């Protein structure tokens, strides 16, 4: 759900100060996330350093930390960029600040990921959430504009396409496009949904920090190869957790204020309706992504390649494909430079295509989706099902 992770408005960067206080969080019943005042009170307690004492308190801590992280990122991106531009800071100084911000986000995501991993609700449910009521001064300018008021609101359920637009300050827009009355009662599948997203975002940012830009900004330098291994583990665990979450949803028999609902649950506010075919497609996607990520299937990146991966064509010789696991787990030496124009990877990252290592069908599936009217809808589906 876009409630826990920082994905939606902070896809470029992506949950919060380490827990170190001596206070205990109030009982779960006291954490009310269905009102603006309840959200503010619960998060004020977390901000004071409250240590979660049970699973409901951990849910509250994750929500507050992740939404605070969104504020941190947006404030830095708006006010920080303006400040650096006004001060006419050199590129090197700007990159130092960018790296510092990414490192901060990675650390905070790691904190909330560990909190989420501790939550074991079993068959019981936890807190009730009404995310459209989580009003917050997101950009730190002292006012709450309409886009900030509804930043965490959920899009209406339906098959509308995936759109990336500037924040709106028109009430009519939110009334027509968002489910402002959506309420979710958190269960274990929701925890797994959020945990998978935390793995993915932390992994992608860790991947990013393995590299530095060249002095002329015309390529990348592999500065920290060990971070590629860490990123591979995080993202791989995300696929595993996503698969577990999908099965957890399918096994549910109740129908009470659901986030993700299975085909038998009518009370779901998940923006993308999922029928039996949708769950089957989801399962196939997780299976194929895991196979690619672990090196059991290969990316078609051969010379003379066509389609979406044509830009990668010089990577591997004819008859071979890119083994993603080898690329991450056996990276080249530190200081290796990758030019944006003439990318070359170690020969060991390419593997002969055979029965044990066939080509992955994922690029072909993505290309087909991108060339049809359902392309943006497919992107929206992938986003919400992580």
Number of strands: 9
Order of helices and strands: HHHEHEHEEHEEHHEHEEHH
Write down the overall geometry: globular
Fraction of residues in β-strands: 5-15%
User: What is the residue-averaged pLDDT?
Assistant: 85
Strand order of the main beta sheet, please? 5-6-8
Computed Rg:
22 Å
Instruction: Give the helix tally.
Output: 11
Largest sheet: 3 strands, antiparallel
| Low-pLDDT windows of residues | 1-28
Cα-to-Cα separation, first versus last residue: 9 Å
Helix content: 40-55%
Structural class: mainly alpha
Quick description:
By secondary structure, the protein is mainly alpha-helical. Helix content is 45%, strand content 6%.
Topology readout:
Layout: H1 36-47, H2 55-86, H3 91-118, E1 128-129, H4 146-149, E2 154-155, H5 171-177, E3 178-179, E4 184-185, H6 188-209, E5 211-213, E6 219-222, H7 225-251, H8 276-293, E7 320-322, H9 324-329, E8 336-339, E9 350-352, H10 362-370, H11 375-384
Antiparallel strand pairs: 1-4, 2-3, 5-6, 6-8, 7-9
Features:
386 residues; single chain; disordered N terminus; mainly alpha; globular; two-stranded antiparallel sheet; 3-stranded antiparallel β-sheet; 9 strands
If you had to describe this structure to a student in words, what would you say it looks like?
The protein is mainly α and 386 residues long. The chain is built from 11 helices and 9 strands. It has helices spanning 36-47, 55-86, 91-118, 146-149, 171-177, 188-209, 225-251, 276-293, 324-329, 362-370, 375-384; strands at 128-129, 154-155, 178-179, 184-185, 211-213, 219-222, 320-322, 336-339, 350-352. The strands form 4 sheets. It has a 3-stranded antiparallel sheet with strand order 5-6-8. It has a two-stranded antiparallel sheet with strand order 1-4. A two-stranded antiparallel ribbon has the order 2-3. A hairpin with a 5-residue loop joins strand 5 (211-213) and strand 6. Helix 6 (188-209) packs antiparallel against helix 7 (225-251). It is globular, with a radius of gyration of 22 Å. The protein starts with 35 loop residues before the first helix and ends with a helix.
